[in-house]
TrEMBL record:
The keyword Glycosyltransferase applies. Keywords: Glycoprotein, Glycosyltransferase, Golgi apparatus, Membrane, Signal-anchor, Transferase, Transmembrane, Transmembrane helix. It is a single-pass type II membrane protein. This is Uncharacterized protein. The lineage of its organism: Eukaryota, Viridiplantae, Streptophyta, Embryophyta, Tracheophyta. It is found in: Golgi apparatus membrane. It holds the Pfam family Glyco_transf_34.
Length: 427
């Protein structure tokens, strides 16, 4: 019985009973007041050894009732808050057990084959680049300007390599927000575009810095998830930076839908994400104590369920699908002097990812001035490779001003003298 009354429903029942009691008490006092203020006419009140001041006693009674009502309303408010908090915790706890990205899809491979059989096949696998940013403005205009340059960089790369691009500015699931928001987005795009074979997620803080390099997609036959990483770092050292989810390629198939479902259970905001963060920090080497993030959660999933997922995951390190910016940006000028694009590796990094920089926020791991300066240089480094097609280049990597230069197309096979995609813009 006590446990029943201590439950949220029991507390609400007790509160209702108390409210009824107070209502009856107020009604009784009201009747006494009305009786005391009525003209009693011929009714005689028996004299006693003491006199009764009805107005004084009723005023005192009203004060007592008001005091009781005030206390009860305060207690009720606290009970309401406790009940709401408990309901929220129960909801989050329920999410941890039952949360899913949507209705279960069990035959997606069959559905895609049926759809593709009715449509003309493509000669090459279709790849959709997916990226995005917050729907709200940055805290500073410089951050918004860098986001504009970031999407311009991705549009250029997609155009040069005949890829499609999807840019998101919304969160499709109020439980999976922040860095987790990519999961419901990828799932929705997979189910909406059966014509797309691969979805390529890339963070807004990542810049294409080798505009000529192409992902060797044929290399990944039999694999469904490609990330930059190292097997010994993930499976042996269990390092929380053994792979990176800032840039990865996901095949559109049933396996990937199942992976997203399993991955997402660790991401609902609130208690689930906080508790999972503690588990991840204990399980992964070097991970600081903070709420669960998508990268650590994926590593944990691969470690604990390697037999389920591991054989379809390719950890790529032959080129920079993700390149840590702090070890790259100071080398740009040397690369321009002594190397050329098209390699994608340390000779000319494919992607420069500004991990730990928050150009749009206030919680960066590095100074904002350094991040903004180097992001500008990375953009211009990539932009030079686009501008050279038209006979221009930036005066320096720190300058937005351009100058004319001799036109080069040696590292863009599709830009031969006999078959140029762009007109000669030089006079």
């Amino acid at each position: 019985m006590r446990s029943l009354l201590a439950s949220p429903k029991g507390k609400r029942f007790t509160k209702t009973v108390n409210n009824v009691k107070v209502t009856l008490l107020c009604g009784f006092i009201t009747l006494l007041v009305l009786r005391g203020t009525m003209d009693l006419g011929d009714i005689q009140i028996l004299e006693t050894d003491y006199s009764v001041d009805f107005h004084q006693d009723f005023s005192a009674a009203f004060r007592d009732v008001n005091r009781v009502l005030s206390v009860l309303s305060h207690v009720d408010a606290e009970d309401d808050d406790e009940d709401e908090d408990r309901d929220d915790e129960e909801l989050v706890s329920s999410n941890a057990t039952y949360y899913s990205l949507g209705p279960k899809v069990a035959d997606w491979d069959v559905q895609m084959r049926a759809w593709r059989s009715l449509h003309e096949p493509h000669q090459e696998p279709r790849i959709l680049i997916v990226t995005g940013s917050s729907s709200t403005p940055c805290n500073n205009p410089v951050g918004d300007h860098l986001l504009l340059k970031s999407i311009k960089n991705k549009m250029d790369y997609a155009r040069l390599h005949d890829l499609q691009l999807y840019y998101s500015m919304v969160e499709l699931d109020n439980q999976l927000v922040g860095f987790w928001s990519k999961l419901p987005l990828l799932r929705k795009l997979m189910l909406t575009h059966p014509d797309i074979e691969f979805l390529w997620w890339i963070d807004s803080a990542a810049i294409f810095t080798d505009m000529a390099f192409e992902v060797p997609i044929g290399k990944y036959e039999g694999f469904n998830l490609i990330l930059h990483g190292w097997e010994h770092e993930v499976y042996e050292k269990k390092a929380w930076v053994g792979l990176n989810t800032g840039s990865f390629i996901l095949r559109n198939c049933q396996w990937s839908l199942d992976l997203l479902d399993a991955w997402a259970t660790m991401g609902p905001k609130g208690k689930v994400r906080q508790d999972m963060g503690s588990i991840l920090s204990e399980a992964l080497d070097g991970r600081p104590p903070f709420e669960a993030d998508d990268q650590s959660a994926l590593i944990y999933l691969l470690i604990t369920q390697r037999e389920v997922w591991g054989n379809k995951v390719f950890l790529e390190n032959a080129y920079y699908l993700h390149g840590y910016w702090a070890s790259i940006v100071e080398r740009y000028e040397d690369l321009m002097r002594f190397s050329n694009n098209g390699y994608g590796d340390d000779r000319w990094p494919f992607v420069t990812h500004f991990v730990g920089c928050e150009p749009c926020g206030n919680h960066a791991d590095y100074s904002k001035q350094r991040c903004l300066r180097e992001m500008e240089r990375a953009f211009n480094f990539g932009d030079n490779q686009v501008l050279e097609i038209y006979g221009f280049t930036h005066e320096s990597l720190s300058s937005s001003t351009v100058k004319r230069t001799e036109r080069h197309s040696a590292h863009y096979p599709w830009l031969s003298n006999d078959n140029q995609m762009h007109p000669n813009l030089t006079s």
